[in-house]
Design brief:
homodimer, about 190 residues, alpha+beta, Arc Repressor Mutant, subunit A, Umud Fragment, subunit A, six-stranded antiparallel sheet, two-stranded antiparallel ribbon, 5 helices, DNA-binding
Chain lengths: ~190, ~190
Amino acid sequence: MTKLSNSFKKIQSFYDQKKRMPSYSEMAKLTGVSSKNAVYKMVERLCGLDLISKDETGRLIPGKSFQGVRLLGYVEAGFPSPAEEELSDTMSMDEYLIDNKEATFMLKVKGDSMIGAGIMPGDMVLVERGREARDGDIVIAEIDHGWTMKYLHRRNGKIILMPANPKYLPILPKEELKIAAVVKAVVRKY
Amino acid sequence: MTKLSNSFKKIQSFYDQKKRMPSYSEMAKLTGVSSKNAVYKMVERLCGLDLISKDETGRLIPGKSFQGVRLLGYVEAGFPSPAEEELSDTMSMDEYLIDNKEATFMLKVKGDSMIGAGIMPGDMVLVERGREARDGDIVIAEIDHGWTMKYLHRRNGKIILMPANPKYLPILPKEELKIAAVVKAVVRKY
DNA sequence: AGTATAGGTGAACGAGCGTTCACCAGTCAA
DNA sequence: TTGACTGGTGAACGCTCGTTCACCTATACT
C-alpha cells in the first residue's frame, strides 16, 4: 500500500460522504501533511494517473476511475487474485444502468408473471418512458384499465402481450393499448 | 413548469456533467440572471426544499433528492400519473446497491446453473468480499481449483453448494472450500 | 390608490481558493 | 563525496468564493 494510494482513498471517501471534492487545505488535513503545496504536487500526480481531473477553471473533479465498483471477469472463468484486481476497470452503477435520468423510473415487481425472464416478485425494474418499444422488449402496458409488465410481440401488425410464465395466458388487447414504459434493467438485492 | 424547477434542472445537469456543484456565479450564467444575489436567494429556496444542501463551510453539496431515479410504486398496483410523480422519492443506484465500495466487485455470469434463482447467463452480479456467508446466501466459492456461484446451505455442520437448476447436481465439497464472496445483488440490462 | 411581497440589480466585504515561489531534508546512483 | 531527485515546509500572490448590503421593479391584494 503506497502512501499515494492511501491518500487517494481518503479523498475518495471524503467525496463519497460530501459529494464534492475536498479543497487543498482540506486534503492537507486528510492526508496529514501541513503544507498545501505538498498536496498540490500530490494532486498533480493523481491527475497524471487520471484518478482526479481539473475542469477548465482549475477546480478539482473526480477522475474517470473515481466512482463505482471494480469490474471483474466472468464468474465461471475464475475469480481474480488480489494482484489482478489492481488492473481492473471500474464502473458506476448509475452510469451503467441509466441513460436518460429524466425519463427513468424504478418500480417494484409484484406477481410472478415474468419469472421465466428472470424477473422475480420483489425485484426492482428500471423503466424508461417515451422510448419506442420494439418486438421482444419487456414493457409496462396499460390494458383494460390496469397495468402489467409483459413481453411485447408484434405478429403481422397485431400486438401480443406475452407473460413469461406458463401459468398465465398471452393477452391480445382488443382495443386500447398504451405502452407506458420499456423495461431497461432489472435489479435484485439480497 | 415553474422557473425554480427549471433552474434546478440546469444545476442538476451541470452536476451530472462535472460531478461538482456550480458556484453562484456559474449558476447566474446557467439561469440567465445577472446578479449573484438573485442566485443566492434561489439557492436558499432550493435548500428549503432539500434539493440542495450546504456543508459546515458553506459550500454547496447536492441535496437528498438530487441524484438517482424516481422511485414509484408496484408495477401491478398501477403506474402513477404524471401528477403523482412529483411526490415520489428518489434513489441512487450506487447507494441502493453498494454498502462497502472497497469490498464490492461486479462480475458477469456465465452458465445457467443459477437460473432458478432468476440469475441468467450474461447478468452482472455484485459481490462483496470478506462478508460472512449465511445459510441460504448465494456465494462465489472456490471448489477443487475452480470457482462457481451457488446457493450455500449448512446441514448439521456440513456445507452443501446447491445450484438452482435441476440440470446440475449439488456439490458436497470434500475438503477445501473457500468462500470468496457473497452475492449481494443481481443486475440485468436489456 | 396604496402597499406588501417576491424576485432582481449591482456593489461591497473578508475569507479561502488554487497556484507559485524559494528553500530544505532524505534517498539513491554514480 | 557528489549530485540529482522526490516529497516536504511555509509564506505569498491575485482571484473568486459565499454572503450581505441598499435599492429597484413588477405583480397581487386589499
